[in-house]
């Protein structure tokens, strides 16, 4: 067997093992898209993550999507989730938030990424405050928090463990 034939044989065997390894990964190893996950309305998971407002929450509508994947290229660790959702605040809490922070109105073209039938998010005026976002989530956590003063509602788009 010549050196060229040995090299081709080794390449063929390595390719077969690679294909078998990749095909053994099931779809369950990959995070579901946010379209696949249902809209949830349980308050407790949001109250735990936004503990500053735990007593101020009236209702919630949210989705989470697992961002981390346990694989050979991404070793197991604490799971990270993308959390998007609406938090309807109690009137007194919303009034306090409205007056305590400087809010900058988002462009009219800005819309929340998550669409929920119970929320008419597309026609609402949304605002953002860096001071408020800093109070709600640590700077190390990616994401943003928006406020709709007319509806006493927050829109959260953050990553959580």
Describe this structure in words.
- By secondary structure, the protein is α+β, with helices and mostly antiparallel strands.
- It has one domain (29-160).
- It contains 4 helices and 6 strands; from the N terminus they run H-H-E-E-H-E-E-H-E-E.
- A 6-stranded antiparallel sheet has the order 1-2-6-5-4-3.
- Strand 5 and strand 6 form a beta hairpin.
Which properties best describe this structure?
161 residues, six-stranded antiparallel beta sheet, 6 strands, elongated, single chain, alpha+beta
Show the helix and strand layout.
Blueprint: H1 3-24, H2 44-49, E1 57-66, E2 81-89, H3 91-100, E3 104-105, E4 127-128, H4 130-136, E5 143-148, E6 153-160
Antiparallel strand pairs: 1-2, 2-6, 3-4, 4-5, 5-6
Which structural class should the secondary elements be placed in? Answer: alpha+beta
**Mean pLDDT level:** 79
Proportion of residues in extended strands: 15-25%
The N- to C-terminal Cα distance equals 55 Å
- What's the number of helices? 4
Radius of gyration: 23 Å
Percentage of helical residues? 25-40%
**What summary fits the major beta sheet?**
6 strands, antiparallel
Succession of helices and strands: HHEEHEEHEE
Number of domains as seen in the coordinates: 1
In one word, what is the shape?
elongated
Task: Give a brief outline of the structure.
The protein has helices at 3-24, 44-49, 91-100, 130-136, and strands at 57-66, 81-89, 104-105, 127-128, 143-148, 153-160. Strands 1-2-6-5-4-3 form a six-stranded antiparallel β-sheet. The chain has four helices and six strands, in the order ααββαββαββ.
